[in-house]
Design goal:
The protein has 4 helices and 7 strands. The protein has 133 residues and is of the alpha/beta class.
């Protein structure tokens, strides 16, 4: 599955994947240093939603392993850049009140799930969602 196909699947199945409606941005969210978020939107509470899409997530071998750790670092990097660019007066430790992070891939990854669990216990609003498409 290609990244754009997975993004389309997420847009078309938002309610079933996220258990809520999210108003997706028409274009990719631009961040400083020419970075683009795969998919961004706003939830019903007005919180910014950032989705990192990884088509290789959970696959066996080096490719899947790299994608697993890259996804975690990438979404945290996007969160940091977003908060600095759009919410500079908010302390990063309070970012959970302004920002929701998701890592979405076609296969469940226990490593990503464990990392998300750790980050949630430390105040980061993050979830891993396997799509099983």
């Amino acid at each position: 599955m290609k990244e754009q196909e997975l993004i389309s699947h997420i847009r078309e199945n938002t309610r079933s994947l996220f258990d809520e409606d999210i108003r997706w941005d028409d274009n990719r969210l631009q961040l400083p240093r020419n970075r683009e978020v795969d998919l961004a939107g706003v939830d019903s509470d007005g919180l910014r939603v950032i989705v990192e899409v990884k088509t290789d997530l959970g696959k066996p071998g080096a490719q899947g392993w790299h994608a697993t750790f890259e996804s975690i670092g990438q979404v945290l990097n996007y969160a940091n850049a977003y908060m600095k660019a759009y919410k500079p007066s908010v302390d990063l430790k309070d970012s959970a009140n302004h920002l929701r992070l998701f890592i979405v891939g076609p296969i469940f990854s226990q490593t990503v799930e464990d990392a998300c669990d750790f980050l949630r216990r430390h105040g980061v609003n993050i979830r891993h969602i396997p799509t099983h498409v």
